[in-house]
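Practice problem 4.
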């Protein structure tokens, strides 16, 4: 039974890759953004039913809402209060989202990897010499939000942010099949770079939400505008805000990826292994 389930999942992922990466990614993503917001009971019901068929782990029991005006409203649903417990320990950096853990571990100088045999550099992704120097020989974790998961991301520690960097790009699929076939995929896709300032100036955490096909849209609580394929504003956006650990920072419009970086004093938490499910608020990094 387990082998059958794994085989089915792999087949769906391969079909997903073959279809989505042969479509005009920009236009299908813009279309989906429009279509998902249609507030019609029949359209909403059928869309969510089809979504359930392809993502049979879609579980709405933890959702505050049980009925949705549109597919978009279901994608961006909020959780019931108290269903995610945030690790309060100061030496722990928590997961900012529900996710499947992808590539993770120590950064080899300035080189990391998206999948075995597919490396990329910190500069390729972050486009900042300052951040490259900050995270050299540090630690990272790639967190993949599946389409059925809760799509909001939360502060992994007490922090403040002073600006947000937005890098426009492509909308490649980010599923495991694509990560093993498309070199430097994360570095090609639309993404945001959020450097978190902690009370201790020697410590640093950076979040990199990466968009993907059907989901090239990110909403941040500290901004008045949505960052998506239509955004034509500046790349560096002033964004002064303070967060307590666990507070909501924003959301994707569907599933995608967040890459989390921490500098040398941190290491991957002993409980973390590649391929596991992790929930918002659970330990991701710990002090060395």
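Answer key:
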């Amino acid at each position: 039974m387990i082998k059958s389930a794994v085989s089915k999942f792999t087949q769906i992922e391969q079909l997903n890759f073959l279809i989505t990466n042969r479509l005009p990614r920009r236009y299908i993503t813009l279309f989906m953004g429009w279509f998902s917001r249609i507030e019609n009971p029949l359209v909403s019901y059928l869309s969510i039913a089809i979504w359930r068929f392809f993502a049979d782990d879609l579980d709405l029991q933890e959702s505050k809402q049980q009925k949705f005006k549109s597919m978009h409203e279901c994608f961006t649903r909020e959780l019931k209060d108290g269903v995610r417990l945030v690790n309060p320990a100061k030496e722990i950096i928590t997961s900012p989202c529900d996710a499947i853990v992808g590539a993770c571990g120590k950064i080899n100088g300035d080189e990391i990897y998206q999948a075995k045999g597919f490396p990329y550099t910190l500069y390729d992704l972050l486009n900042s010499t300052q951040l490259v120097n900050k995270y050299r020989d540090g630690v990272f974790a790639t967190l993949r939000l599946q389409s059925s998961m809760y799509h909001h991301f939360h502060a992994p520690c007490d922090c403040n942010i002073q600006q947000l960097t937005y890098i426009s790009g492509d909308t490649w699929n980010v599923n495991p099949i694509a990560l093993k076939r498309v070199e430097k995929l994360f570095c090609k896709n639309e993404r945001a770079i959020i450097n978190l300032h902690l009370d201790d100036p020697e410590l640093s955490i950076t979040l990199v939400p990466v968009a993907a096909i059907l989901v090239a849209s990110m909403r941040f609580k500290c901004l008045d505008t949505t960052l998506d394929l239509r955004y034509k504003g500046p790349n560096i956006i002033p964004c002064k805000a303070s967060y307590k650990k666990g507070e909501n920072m924003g959301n994707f419009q569907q599933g995608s990826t967040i890459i989390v970086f921490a500098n040398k004093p941190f290491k991957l938490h002993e409980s973390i292994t590649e391929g596991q499910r992790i929930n918002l608020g659970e330990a991701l990094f710990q002090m060395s």
